[in-house]
Structures are given as C-alpha cells and as structure tokens.
Design goal:
alpha+beta; 16% helix; globular
C-alpha cells in the first residue's frame, strides 16, 4: 500500500513539475485551440506541437508537414487521446489533442 501511495505522489509531482495538465481534468473534445508553439516533435505520420494556450500548455497532433503561422498554431475539432506513445522520440504524452488545422 505504501509503495502504491508513494508512486501516486511521485506521479503527481512529476505532472506538477513539468507543467503538463492532468489528463483527467481536460475535456474530451474542444472546438478550437490556439497558442504559441514552444516545442515540436515529428513522429510520422504526425507532428506533435506543445502550445501555450490561455488555459495552459496543451499538446496538439496534426498531419506531418503542417506548419504554424508566425509561431502560432490554431486548430479545430480537437479530440483528446491519453497516453500517446512516440517511439521514435522515446516519449509518451499524457494528453494530446488530435485536430484539424484551422483554415481562414
């Protein structure tokens, strides 16, 4: 029991320290997300963008080759996927929104 509690506390601290939101608190669908791109990981067939939104940091996935405009990414019809592994990058994203690029 103590090991489970220690692991849970460690996981919460890790989330708090890396600035990523708790996936359990995120809505499953979002009509629109917009933010400044602070990180990009290409893992075919998607590019994963970490953006700073008004509500905090979010990961967004778009088809590879999609480029933000002037460092800002706007997407629509975003659906949440939890625990997405990126084998090529050796990372797992706790929460990422798969979306469509916004067209003007």
């Amino acid at each position: 029991m103590k090991k489970c509690l220690a692991a849970a506390v460690a996981a919460l601290l890790l989330v708090a320290c890396n600035g990523e939101p708790d996936p359990r608190t995120l809505p499953p669908r979002v009509d629109r997300l917009q933010g400044r791109v602070v990180e990009q990981i290409d893992s075919a067939p998607y590019s994963f963008f970490r953006i700073e939104t008004a509500d905090g940091p979010r990961w967004v996935a778009l088809p590879i080759g999609t480029a933000p405009r002037n460092g800002v990414l706007s997407v629509t019809q975003a659906a949440l996927v939890k625990n997405r592994r990126l084998p090529a990058a050796g990372r797992t994203l706790a929460a990422v929104y798969f979306a469509r690029p916004e067209t003007n």
